[in-house]
Amino acid sequence: MPTDLVARLKCIPEAADIDAALDRELSAVEIPGGLTEQLHEIAASQALVTRSVRQRSAADRSPRVSWAVGIWTVAATLLLALGIGSIWQINRNSDIAKHDPVSVISAPVRLAEQSLALEWLGPTRSEIEGQAQLSDLLPLVDIQSVSPAITEVSLPEIQVAHSDVPRIKSLSEELPEDLLASTFLMRWQPLGANPMIRSMHGRPQLLLPSANAVSFFSESQAYDREFLLRESSHPFASPQHPSMRSTSVPITGDQKSFENSLFSENPFSPEVLENARSEEWLAATGKFYVPAQPNQLELRTAAGPAVFAGAGTQLLEIGIVAGSTDSKDRAPVHLTVAVTPPESKQHALRTWLPVKIALREMIEQLRPHDSVTLVVMSDLPYVLIDDATSEHREEWFAALDRIDLGSPSNLAEGIRFASATSLTKAGFGDIRRSLVVLSDRFPALDVSTNEQLRPLIENASQQGVKFSWIQLEDENYASLVPAPSALHGMGDWLVTNSLQRLGRILNQQIHGAPSLIGTNPNVRVKWNQKSVAQYRLIGYQPVGGDFVSTSATHEFHALDSGTLLFELVLPEDGPNDIASIELTWNDTSGKARKSVQKVSRLQFAPSWQASPLSLQAAQLTQQSLALHQNSYFSRRRGNTIDELDNWASSLNPAIRQHASYPRLEVLLPSLHD
Q: Ranges for the VWFA domain (predicted)?
């Protein structure tokens, strides 16, 4: 590239603007009539102009002329002296010409560097230093030491120094072969910048992966902790090293980051997603496993291709599922659920959506003799569906979908109507009658309304109706929302909008027993080094430090689940046994329990369509969070939202018919269409 081409190209827009401005000014000029004849007369009358000049006195012009001639003479002398002195100094110090930064640039010899399609990044460091050294010499030239050395300067050498040599070649010698190396990023990018992805709001479309072969694997034989600290994700590890042949992970069934990301005033906000944890998202959407036996924790495994990681990478899913607390000899229950319709779409996302999902999942936990009635506490309360059983799941789902947004509500009349509806149900034998009222408008009940409701609630309670009052607000504000006076001592008062907490409350109302199944589940995976070349744990970043306690008890309640995801690179030939999984936990009495299961190559599904329901849901959940967080592996692999939509569109139809399908639907844009 010619050395002055960049400067000329930069001046083109400015020159065009100047020409356009001149054209506009000239087009506005008006030429008076007879101007041409007047100019010809002035040019022909030289004698008149000469007489006027000669008539001036010599005393008027002689001082000005003498001062001007003196100033210009001194300036010309100084300029000539500086020029001659600088050229003489350059000839005397011949090392400057020999070490010209542009003339000594050598072409690269490595093929990998020749294939780099880089653009000009400006003058190199050696050029800047050389130009600064030349500019520093000019003011230091001694005017007294001027000599006729100018005749020794050869013009062809100066032209060679400004030859069209690509300046980028001097920079390519310092580039690593992998442009994503940390040394390159720290050297050529400002702190906090990410050169491989553009900042886009809403739909983070990522760049395609580099054409060169990229290795995600750790160069160290043991675990690469530096990678974990730098990228906030686990690296690949090799079971060939003895210390990497087993992995022990404490399992969590918590769903806080999933709920905070969705059921908040600003869903999917960057502040919340920054601290979101994959294991909690997987626990929230891991409801597609085969159910476990009552009062037990059981292992579930699934395996198949990792569709977002490219060919050759497999995905192993390890699920921990808690059974129900339903006892064999419990009495049947009739549950009445009263809800207020949501005021708006945003209000529905924060309060109605978790209630809707919890009610969908509750219907599948009913026994044949159990029933449920849904009351909508609108302006005129009404029964939406009556005496629904586990066989009416489709009708129950359709009834929940028919609740309109923005309908007016009447909480006081709704409580009276729901209590009367619950009393109409037969109370023969040992049948239990429970009434659960879910609303975010309990503080709106005034004093007079509370006085009227109190005797009605007391009468229903005396006739065997068990009340549960749930204020749909954040649990952190529970102290700010006191129970109304009409509800004091009349059942349980709770403040929550947690999907997980709502599900536990409803299950407890149905089963009539505490929902806790076990505590502190831990999974230990023993890898077969002959069958696994590399593995990587997804999520479960270590927590702890000076102010964070890692000794908290991990509780598993009824129907909770936890998920472990591993990316595996398997050699083409090897034994069928991949790993051995060991689950340990403590039951409600504190007794240690243990379960063991093996994983074989025969369990790996050949395609996405053949993958189990839980594995498809886990891949979509993890990839959705990875794209929102712009995680390391998602960025390197060039994953996009469009790619996520394509795989989501080919979901197994059984997932869409599942009661927990809305948990996954809210994460995937294509499922909303």
A: 355-440
Distance CA(457)–CA(416), nearest Å, equals 8
Q: Among 463, 489, 511, which residue terminates a domain?
A: 511
pLDDT of residue 314: 96
Supply 646's token pair: 């394509």
* Integer Cα distance of 583 and 298 in angstroms: 8
566 and 600 in a single domain? The answer is: yes
- Whether 91 is in a domain gets the answer no
- With CA atoms as reference, report the closest residue to 160 among 243, 103, 200: 103
DSSP string, 565-576: EEEEE--SS--S
Confidence grade of residue 160 (pLDDT, cut at 50, 70, 90): very low
Across the chain, mean pLDDT equals 77
State whether 610 and 475 are in the same domain: no
Sheet holding 432-439, edge to edge: 382-388, 371-376, 333-339, 432-439, 465-471, 492-495
Q: Are both 305 and 351 inside the same structural domain?
A: no
Q: Which pair of tokens denotes residue 1?
A: 């590239």
Q: For the residues 363-382, what does the mean pLDDT come to?
A: 93
Please choose, from the candidates 637, 639, 638, the residue with its C-alpha nearest in 3D space to the C-alpha of residue 647: 639
| pLDDT given for residue 608 in this prediction | 95
Domain extent, residue 434, equals 333-511
**Predicted pLDDT at 127:** 58
483 and 438 co-located in one domain = yes
The HSE-up count of residue 531 (CA atoms within 13 Å, CB side) is 14
Q: Where are the alpha helices (DSSP H) in 179-235?
A: 182-188, 225-231
341-352 per-residue burial string, b: 16 or more CB within 10 A, e: under 16: bbbeeebbbbbb
pLDDT score, position 45? 63
Domain count, the chain: 2
Q: Given a cut of 70, is residue 323 above it in pLDDT?
A: yes
Residue 118: is its pLDDT beyond 70? no
Return the half-sphere exposure (C-beta side, CA atoms, 13 A cut-off) of residue 463. 17
User: Does residue 186 lie within any of the structural domains?
Assistant: no
Q: Which two tokens stand for residue 295?
A: 């009062």
Angle between the N-to-C axes of helices 613-629 and 641-649, in degrees from 0 to 180, rounded to the nearest 10: 160
Helices (H), 323-441: 345-347, 353-362, 393-401, 411-423
- pLDDT at residue 131, as a whole number: 55
End of a domain among 479, 494, 511?
511
Task: Report, in angstroms and rounded to the nearest whole number, the Rg of the chain calculated over CA atoms.
Answer: 40
One domain for residues 290 and 422: no
Confidence of residue 639 (pLDDT cuts 50, 70, 90): very high
Task: Please report whether residue 51 resides in a domain.
Answer: no
